[in-house]
Amino acid sequence: MSNPLLIFWAQLFSRREPVGRVSSRVHVESSVQASSTIFLVMRRMRAPLITLIVIFFVSVVGLTLIPGIDPAGRPARLSLFESFYFTSYTATTIGFGELPWPFTPGQRLWVTFSIYLSVVGWAYAIGSLLTLLQDRSFRQALALRRFTRKVARLREPFLLVAGYGRAGELLAESFDALGQQLVVIDESSERVDALDLGSYHADIPGLVADAANPHHLSAAGLDHPCCAGVLALTSDDETNLAITMTAALLRPDLPVVSRTVSAPIADRMRAFGTPAVVNPFDRFGEHLRLALHAPASYQLLTWLEAGPGAELPTRGHPPTEGRWVMCGYGRFGREVTADLRAAGLEVSIIEPAERGEPEPGVIVGDASEAEVLDRADVTGAVGLVAGTDNDTTNLSMLASARRLNPELFLAARQNRPTSAALFEAMGVDALLVPTEVVAHEVYAQVSTPMLWRFIQEIPARGDQWAADLIQRLRRNCGHELPALWKVKLDRDQAPALAGWLAEGKVALGDLLRSPEDRERRLRVVPLLLLRGGDAVLTPDGEMVLARDDELLFAGQSSERRELESTMVVDSTGAYVLFDQHIPSSWVWRKLSRKHPTPSTLDDREGVTSRRG
Amino acid sequence: MNLEKVIFGFFVLLAATLNFGFFIGDISNPDVHNIYELFAALAVSLIATVLKFGDRTQIGAVHLATSLVADLQLIAAVVVWVWAEEISAAGITVGSTASVVSLSGGALLANLVSVVLLLTETVTFHRG
């Protein structure tokens, strides 16, 4: 395995298993629309072209029929060829003059007539062509054609992102940083222009089209064999439902992640296969509950979900006892109230607008008015949630509430990205930005399944465990979230370890030593070990690894490369794991006869020769 | 009655008849082949080609192909005629006439195929 070629081979083909390589099942005809472009041009150019041909023919024949005279004074007509030549350069406004001889007045009369005729003909033809190029439907057809071709040429797994709003943009940035290819479809041309302007490493194809139309989804690569998943992130629940349906019916094998804020829609989505439905309001409630009883767990969860390079969020200390005031009792308010009550807290509710019969216990009124807040007894409360769908209302509620009770814990919902600065200046303790919640959630679910598994296990582990893990991550990797990557200890990714793994000699703590100096520990934190279906969270150094174990690590990419060399190069592996020096070349190994662990090495060489 | 079909059929047929008119007669005798007729055949054939643009059906594609063949043959015939008349020292000879007429004969064959296609289309249309 020390052969550089074999290492190269192993590096090249072991890193990532092909994701979602499946054969296309249903082909929705979408190229028809695109290929019609050329026919459209030809059809619309019929009349101008025929006009040109007729004008040419009439001018040429007419000119040969008019009698002329040669310099000797004899009657001489132009031949058809001369006439064609003359008409060609006259009609195209080149104008070489009267050839081969000066014309007679009769010929000049005809030429005058045919000049006007041909200029009109050319103007008509060129004008029609330019109009066609400016035509909206024609340009759309061209764009669709270009997009379809670009998508068809993709040869790496890609995610189909429907809806490039704020959430789509955040996700695109995270996935682009991971090297994951995307295809974007959005209804607004401004958003697709924003995609073109965005600074991404990869060239992300974008299409302006209605994603609820299966033909457009198909053009965006739904039936492409490399399509690895569909993310329905538009702001319209109906559209997301349509996308989920289309994907589930046409490509049942694809994972689908869908965003909705409505529980009934979520149920209808779940009727089609098993889409992962992300409801930002629901998630915020769960997060709030987690933040109430385990602030460190909440901090860890938000950090991991925020994607690579994210700063460690500050740990909040929401009051765990006392009464909360909920302003705005819409979908969001109901979700959060239910979660707060489930956490054993008392909640007073203020609803600004009266919607039918007010529920018992609901105070109706404008929560930005001190009198209404007094009725809800804000001075005696510990926390307030401003949860209407209007940022101005939310901000004024927060301001009034703070004036009445400066000690209040303030949570708010931010609806528009432009309001971010205002909420920050307000110093809100907990802020919900639905689009960001969606982006983080989808990122955690799609980027690696192991991260999602890890995140789901976090709440069960308790606050102290999370606080310790955050300490460890900070010590090893700094304040910014390091890259998370997974490793599978099989023959492709860890060929050097195969023999030792089978004998149960590899402890995780030994594996994470530096190949430069085995006394130094790699600055890598193992987050999760998957063996079969069982998960071990933050496995310790004593853990003995087995073949086909899957590990999720957090650490800088330089540390990752060192770990990879340990797993691929067997002489490095022997040094790192057992502090033994074995020659790296086969000849030298035979000469020195220095076989530290003969049985394993023989086994290993057998493997190598079979592979080579 | 569809006016578009009338115009289309008119030009396809006219291209074939003009071509036939030029082609008929002793192949090597320049007196029986009028160059204006060849020129008219070329112009009408070009118009017929443009009329066939933008038809997506299979039969439309074959129509366009036959027309393109006819155009090519007629343009070649005209070029040979211009060469003989204006450039070569010998002028119009028996040989050059024969090649002009035989090239137009090729175009005639393509035009006949066009007419056959037109008839086939019409007949199947009535059956359907």
Please provide a written account of the structure.
The complex is a heterodimer of chains A (612) and B (128). Chain A folds into four domains: 45-134, Helix Hairpins; 139-278, 3-Layer(aba) Sandwich (Rossmann fold), CATH 3.40.50; 319-428, Rossmann fold (3-Layer(aba) Sandwich), CATH 3.40.50.720; 482-611, Regulator of K+ conductance, C-terminal domain (Alpha-Beta Plaits, 2-Layer Sandwich), CATH 3.30.70. Chain A is built from 26 helices and 16 strands. In chain A, helix 3 crosses helix 4. The longest helix of chain A has 30 residues, at 105-134. With 128 residues, chain B is mainly alpha-helical. The chains are: A alpha/beta (612), B mainly alpha (128).
Classify the oligomer: heterodimer
Strand order of the largest sheet of chain A: 3-2-1-4-5-6
Q: Give the overall pLDDT of chain B as a whole number.
A: 90
* H and E string of chain B: HHHH
CATH domain class name of the largest domain in chain A:
Alpha Beta
The N- to C-terminal Cα distance of chain A equals: 9 Å
What is the name of the CATH architecture of the largest domain in chain A?
A: 3-Layer(aba) Sandwich
Residue fraction in strands of chain B: under 5%
The number of helical runs of chain A is 26
Please tell me the total number of domains of chain A: 4
Residues in β-strands, percent of chain A: 5-15%
Mean pLDDT of chain A: 81
> Which structural category do the helix and sheet elements of chain A fall into?
alpha/beta
State the CATH topology of the largest domain in chain A: Rossmann fold
Structural Rg of chain B: 16 Å
